[in-house]
Amino acid sequence: MDQRSLAPLLLASRLDIFIDIYNHRRDVALCLVRAETQCNVSTKEQKLQNMSRLLSITFILLSSLMSTPCQAQGRDSINWISFEQLSDSLQVHPKKVILFFHTDWCSYCRKMQNEVFTDAEVISALNNTYYAVRFDAESVDTVTFEGKKFTNTISKKRTGRYHALAQLLAQREGKLVFPTAILLDEKFTVRQRYFQYLDKKKLLKAIKF
Predict the structure, then answer these.
(1) Domain range for residue 193?
(2) pLDDT at 39 over 60
(3) Is 134 helix (H, G, I), strand (E, B) or coil?
């Protein structure tokens, strides 16, 4: 049986897994809402937060589901997600993680995004086995990750003024160098950090730990 004939079977199997995970996540969210209602703790706001988190994880799991290994039709882009989505996804369906820190002025960052992360082999490898997070180190957005809020000290984006998440995760000897790629295992433990441009060959080798 060739890969194309196997594709419907593989997709059906992944759909069953996705439905089980979704139903479990929904039940957990409903239990949390009931508990919060009994405790009279900002019930309406908590319901909205739980629903938002449920929809977020549903989207991520569905995106992962559609990345079948047979690659009969292939994908043309990496499934980049946010730190908020990563936090939920790791709790439900642990996978390896790649964090890519970049800036607008970094030419090698653009080169990786335009040439390496658009390569079909790289796309397939990352979509199948990794959660991929791409983050502008000079962002001024407030990011909630693992229950904590991370911000920039300024409200208007400026060269050389870095976000707290970049300073926490992407520093080498007290300095930030771009591009930075951090590879983590399913338990969110750092396995490798690269403070340089990685071409296709080097990146594919690196993610096979």
Answers:
(1) 80-206
(2) no
(3) strand
